[in-house]
Amino acid sequence: MTKEEILHLGTLSRIRLSDAEALKLKGEIDAILEYVSEVNKLVPDGHLEKKVGLVHNVFREDKVVNEPDSYSDVLQAAFPEREGDYLKVKKILNPDS
Amino acid sequence: MTISELRKKFISGEYTPMEAVAEAKAVISEKDGDIHAYLDVYDDAEEMAKEATARYQKEGGNTPPLCGVPLAIKNNILIAGKRATGASKILDNYIASYDATVIKRLRDAGAIFIGSTNMDEFAMGSSTENSAYGPTRNPIDQSRVPGGSSGGSAAAVAMSSVPAALGTDTGGSIRQPASYCGLVGLKPTYGAVSRYGLMAMGSSLDQAGTLTNSVEDAETLFNVIAGRDPHDMTTISGETYGVAPTKDTYTFGVPRAFLGQGVDADVMERFESHLDELRAAGHRIVDIELPLFEAGLAAYYIVMPAEVSSNLARFDGIRYGVRKEGKDLLETYLNSRADGFGAEAKRRILLGTYVLSSGYFDAYYGKAEALRGKMRDELNAAFAQVDLVVTPTAPTPAFKLGEKSDPLSMYRQDIFTVPVNLTGVPALSIPMGEVERDGVSLPTGVQYIAPHGGEARLFDIGRKVYDAKRYNNG
């Protein structure tokens, strides 16, 4: 893996990385990937059978179970920035970028 | 002190919840400056203790099973109105908006929450050194780690501030600290305990469980926190897997080849003596083969980071947590997450993003999941011959702070515990005897692994082997 690939993974993961961080991570991730490649020896290609075990997701009925507004105050209190009842965020499109 | 001993004294009136909470707080003031087991200590515990004390005066033994029992809670479990950081800077200011199901159940059973405990950031680590709030030290030897990621919970019990604590276990995060701190640690069957209100790390691996001084206490707490929950779709009922019956004597399987991997010689000696004790008590010990378990750690370091990278995507500084503004939304994400996450969290998020990326998905995640299925089959086949599988919990006793600076050497501490999470079975770690390092006696742990839904069997053998000895020695 190259430093540029690590920086790209950082962007995909929405984490800004410094060059020094990327270099350190490159060595570590290379070593970990080499270690985990062991699974390739044990599972031949084309044998990726997907099994659903006894425990699987069971979805409940799609209906509202809380009283309206019962959590609004406490959730709004956690907003990093708010305006009235609205959560305030930065614009998505930036003409400079 | 155990929960059952406390409970007896509360009922007889010899000791009160108010005294217990006062004593817990006194121990914390005296020791926690050095140990740093706690992130927050709650000042409403006294009020709850007052109510519990009044209840005992009125209701005595009819009070619920944990009435007035002080507990410490790992800080990735939400308690409404309390700070829940996951030991991460990105949630430094986050106040939980609701109770986790395990908290609600403990509350209903009368428990008192003394405080939240330190941990590796978002439960990622085996030493509690990855906390954004500084490491926790092992109360038995302060130059050493308490294990992790539930190291704060283990240290809180080991320093006698509380009789028990809740932790979470994704790859050994309850059992390994239990082993390092001389405690009993329980990782229940996947789905036995609700994950609602736990900060998700590896959703197909995570389970909440207990750190206690006795197996009896682990059982008491498990009976309170376990059960189906409409808020967690993966919770199981008692019937899902059927019952693994308890017996007078058990057949234990020892995966010999697997144990060849880097276990300290004196830890292996303790393990052999433990097997001798089991034989002397009439149990049978047989060698078994679990060849795929040796690759468990490799599969784990694919599956877990993949799930981590998805689960930690929610921490972006937008709806809650710490936001670092940038010029636009993208820059706000990049800044908040760069500042908010520590090195281990970043490493695993990147690794997970890589193994899930198109082109690599089949080679890594697909194969790891396939291997996981084969491991489950291999283990089920073993359980056709044996009642329990037994291994050391960790290959070494507690190591020194800073000793494992290379990520892979840290990961190898979990070699015996991760296969349990990958296959979803329950396991119990109990103290196995001590080994000496630099003139200090350090505890080690033995791990019993049961079939899915086999907690009753773990409690039965655990009581026979550990509680009986513990109470005989006073």
From TrEMBL, chain A:
InterPro entries: Asp/Glu-ADT_sf_sub_c, GatC
UniProt GO BP: regulation of translational fidelity
Signal peptide: none
Name used for this protein in its record: Aspartyl/glutamyl-tRNA(Asn/Gln) amidotransferase subunit C
Source organism (scientific name): Candidatus Kaiserbacteria bacterium RIFOXYB1_FULL_46_14
Source taxonomy: Bacteria, Candidatus Kaiseribacteriota
TrEMBL record, chain B:
Gene3D superfamilies recorded: Amidase signature (AS) domain
InterPro entries: Amidase, Amidase_CS, Amidase_dom, AS_sf, GatA
Nucleotide-binding recorded as keyword: yes
Catalytic activity reported: L-glutamyl-tRNA(Gln) + L-glutamine + ATP + H2O = L-glutaminyl-tRNA(Gln) + L-glutamate + ADP + phosphate + H(+)
Composition skew (Low complexity), residue ranges: 143-152
Sequence segments annotated as region (Disordered): 129-152
This protein's UniProt keywords: ATP-binding, Ligase, Nucleotide-binding, Protein biosynthesis
The protein's Enzyme Commission number: 6.3.5.7
Active site: 74, 149, 173
GO cellular component: glutamyl-tRNA(Gln) amidotransferase complex
Pfam families: Amidase
Enzyme type, top EC level: ligase
GO biological process terms, semicolon-separated: translation
Top-level taxon: Bacteria
Gene Ontology molecular function: ATP binding; glutaminyl-tRNA synthase (glutamine-hydrolyzing) activity
Amidase domain boundaries: 26-458
Function in brief: Allows the formation of correctly charged Gln-tRNA(Gln) through the transamidation of misacylated Glu-tRNA(Gln) in organisms which lack glutaminyl-tRNA synthetase. The reaction takes place in the presence of glutamine and ATP through an activated gamma-phospho-Glu-tRNA(Gln).
Subunit structure as annotated in this protein's UniProt entry: Heterotrimer of A, B and C subunits.
Family of the protein in this entry: Belongs to the amidase family. GatA subfamily.
Protein name as it appears in the record: Glutamyl-tRNA(Gln) amidotransferase subunit A
Species per Swiss-Prot/TrEMBL record: Candidatus Kaiserbacteria bacterium RIFOXYB1_FULL_46_14
